[in-house]
Each structure stands twice: as C-alpha cells, then as structure tokens.
Amino acid sequence: MIFAEAPSNIALIKYMGKGAGNQPLNPSLSLTLPNFRSRVEIHPQGAEDQYQDQWRPLEVPPWKSPSLSDKGVEKFLRHFGLLKKELGLPGHFQIRSGNNFPGDCGVASSAASFAALTLAAYRLSGKDLPLARVAELSRQGSGSSCRSVGPDWMLWDDTGAREWPHGAKTQHGSTNLRHELVLIDAQKKEVTSSEAHRRVLTSAQFPGRPERARNRLRAFEVAWGTGDWTTCRQVVWDEFQDMHALFSTSNPPFSYLTKPVIEFLALLQREYETHGDGPMVTLDAGPNVHLLYRADQSSIKDLILERWPHWTVLVGREKT
Ligand code: PMV
Question: Does residue 85 sit in helix, strand or coil?
Fold first, then answer.
C-alpha cells in the first residue's frame, strides 16, 4: 500500500472563474492549513475487481470519509485515471480516502483530497518530477488542489503554481500566521465549486473580475513586503466580498452570507475599529469564517471569539 497526505489551503486572493482543464482566469494566492489534512491510500486491487479502479471510504481515526456522491466518486477516479496515464501506472487499484476535518462546507476539502491523490500516485510511480509538474497534474483534478502540493504560501496563475516568493519576507513576524476557522454552518454545500465557477460567469459583475483580482494581488504583495497589515487585511476583505458578490449576482443567484455570517462579520469589523488592529478575515465558498492572525494579535482574536462561544472553532495553523 502506498499513501500520501496533503493539507488544505485557504485562498486570500481567490480562484473563481475557470477555462478548460481548470485553467484559472485570474491569479490566486493561498496559505496552507497543515492541520486540515486528507489522506489517500492506494491499495492493490483484489482478484475479483482487477478490471477497474474503486473508491472506498477511509474510516480509521483520525480520518473520516467525505460523503462522496456517485458523481464525486466518478470525478475522483477520473483524476486517478488521468494520473495513471500521465505517470505510466499500469493496472487497477483501490483508492481509500478520508479527511480529518469537515468536508464540503467551504473548507476546501477537494483541494486537500485531490492533492493527496496526486501525491500518492506520484509516489507510486517512483518518478522524480519538479513541484510545478506535480502541481500541474493536481490542477487537472481540482484547480485549487495545485496550491496544496507545495509549501506554505502558494501563488498560482496561468503559468502554473509555485511558492510565493514574498511569503518568508516580512519584518513584523507575520510570516508565521495562525489560522482559525469559525464553523457557522457545516452543512453540505448546495452549489458545488465547479458549478460556482460556471455560474459566476453569468454575473454582470464578472467583467473586470480578473483585473480586480490581479490588482489586489499586486496591492497585497506591496503591503505584505512593507509590513502594512491594515492594507493586507483590507485587500483580503475586499477580495472575499467580491467573490461572494459574484455568487449573489449570478444566474441563478446563491449566497453563503447568511444572517449569522453577516452578524459575525459586522462584529469582526467593529472589533477591528475598536482595537485599530485584528485578524485578516476571509470566507471560502461556504458560510464559515477564516481568521488569519499574527501571534501578537492572539488576545484580540480571543476577545472576539469569547463573544460567540456557541460556535465551533477549528485550528488550521498553529505556531510552526
Ligand atoms: O478547486 P475548486 O474547483 O474546488 O475551486 C475552489 C475555489 C475556491 O475555493 C472557492 C477559491 C480558492 O481559490 O480556493
């Protein structure tokens, strides 16, 4: 048996809107969440099933299997088929996969699981490929997964995915960001991310979106490099609002900005104004709020969360 694990990632500049083969229409930037992991095992196939690949849930603690629909299983196995072809792997296998965090609710479980599948197949092949090639393989299964095969900060644009060179460079200790996810609603998403990518193209706000994302990436890079947290936070805030505005203006519209999410965002904004400081805030495609903060902002983050004690908080990144 061969296995691999991969972390999830949270995008600060979002990949939303795609072309053929999951090619992104705009650059995106993400931070790895080492505590939210997927594991994929590749087992030899039994004699009775030697003519096809199969997927099975991995239910060995701490791994819990995602509740994959038939379509989800088909997509996963299709990607495995592509990997076998590209990596020259003959035969059929049984794939087992599980996550140690809730799937399908805007915590990018597909990023982690497709990256883990790609890494496991790559390991099985025994090949030695550059990171960019492994990321390219993963991207074909699930776009955002190409940002989960590399180190902490990953940049992905139409030339491929690579480490974000500015990640390690700041003077104010923000390289080592911590992450917590405030789980407001862990229900399965009704609109899959593939459908979201398609639907945002119908929004009247889509024209100009790639340009807006590129401009924010540039602004974030400059602000990060000079240690300007206020601007970084604002850029990340504007970026998730932009993506969610595309959702709510697409045809048909959909939204994750539920009442408790809006109330929590308002609280985060009030607290930021009170303290003149606070975590960066972002939402993925789901009604859950990601907080990214520096070690010296921990007390502000604690104060905020004390006001909402009824919600589950999952730690995606600790001190590394
Ligand atoms: O990789 P996909 O097709 O599941 O796209 C996910 C895109 C977002 O998670 C919504 C944003 C991002 O950049 O991760």
Answer: helix
Q: Among the atoms of ligand 1, which is closest to the Cα of residue 144?
A: 1
| 7 class by beta-carbon count within 10 Å (0-12 exposed, 13-18 middle, 19+ buried) | buried
Residues 303 and 267: their CA atoms lie apart, in Å, by 11
Q: How high is the pLDDT of residue 251?
A: 97
Residue to mutate (ligand 1; options 71, 193, 201; most atoms within 8 A of CB): 193
Would you say residue 127 has pLDDT above 90? yes
Torsion of CA 66, 257, 242, 295, to 10 degrees: -70
3-state secondary structure of 86: helix
Which token pair is 245?
A: 């505005």
**Ligand 1 pocket member 104 (CB < 6 A):** no
Look at residues 143, 136, 140, 141 and name the one whose alpha carbon lies nearest to residue 11.
Answer: 143
pLDDT in tens, 253-280: 999 999 999 999 999 999 999 999 999 9
Q: What are phi and psi of 39, to 5 degrees?
A: -125, 135
Give one word for 105, left, alpha or beta, with left for phi > 0 and alpha for psi -120 to 50: alpha
Give the whole-angstrom CA distance, residue 39 versus residue 302.
Answer: 31
E strands, 25-142, where?
28-44, 54-57, 93-99
Instruction: Find, among 94, 101, 113, 103, the residue nearest to 56 by Cα.
Output: 94
Nearest to 158 by CA among 191, 186, 131, 132: 132
Q: pLDDT digits over 147-196, tens only? A: 999 889 999 999 999 999 888 766 555 668 999 999 998 777 789 888 99
Three-state DSSP state, 90: coil
Q: In the chain, helix, strand, coil percent, each to 5?
A: 40, 25, 35
